[in-house]
Amino acid sequence: KEKKKVNCKPKNQDEQEIPFRLREIMRSRQEMKNPISNKKRKKAAQVTFRKTLEKEAKGVEPDIAVPKFKQRKGESDGAYMQRMHQEAQHVLFLSKNQVPRQPEVQAAPTERSEQKKAKKAFQRRRLDKVQRKKEEKAADRLEQELLRDTVTFGEVVLQPPELTVRPRRSVSKDQPGRRSQMLRMLLSPSAVSQPLTASLARQRIVGEERERAMQAYRVLKQRRRLLHGERPHLTSRKKPEPQP
């Protein structure tokens, strides 16, 4: 196959050829003036027949097209009547051989319709998930806006904020200048010492311990008294007599 020559110099310098684009325009205009050739008419009929076979193979029969009659240019009356008769006979033949339809019977759902339903259900779940995420983000944003403390321009703070509610999981610590809880309980007027009821054995043991402590205290006091009484004799010394 020879390649088309583009932008080549003319064979004869004295003659100028018609440009390719202009030749294409002239050819298309000539084809529009001439009637359709038999070859193109056969090709169009084959395409229509192939489409009809494909639709019948799919199981869906199209509605029979109602022909519209119009006398062509240059067509005689006899030819026009004959063409109308042939097309009417063709329509009658198609209507007789057509499968009877039952429009009142609901067609069974096909696989394609099931796929569409599954796709719609998936899209609905996806939209619900996206909507849920948007609502969660909006709730978080609103919570942050509520917890944010807006400080106006020129505002002066003289002391730190005071907490009116004790936060959870907080450890209480003694603050300077405040009395402890035990001292507060002792100084309160309702703090009255109540005697504890002990058993007889414990009372006896406590009594013996008290007596032993009192005896030891007496001995210690007596020793101190003796030491204070003997100290002048131990510490007194004789002064040396002057020699003559």
TrEMBL record:
InterPro entries: CCDC137
Residue spans of biased composition, Basic and acidic residues class: 128-140, 227-244
Segments for region (Disordered): 99-140, 223-244
Source domain of life: Eukaryota
Cellular component annotations (GO), alphabetically ordered: chromosome; nucleolus; nucleoplasm
Record's compositionally biased regions (Basic residues): 117-127
Signal peptide extent: none
UniProt name for this protein: Coiled-coil domain containing 137
Species, as recorded: Mandrillus leucophaeus (Drill)
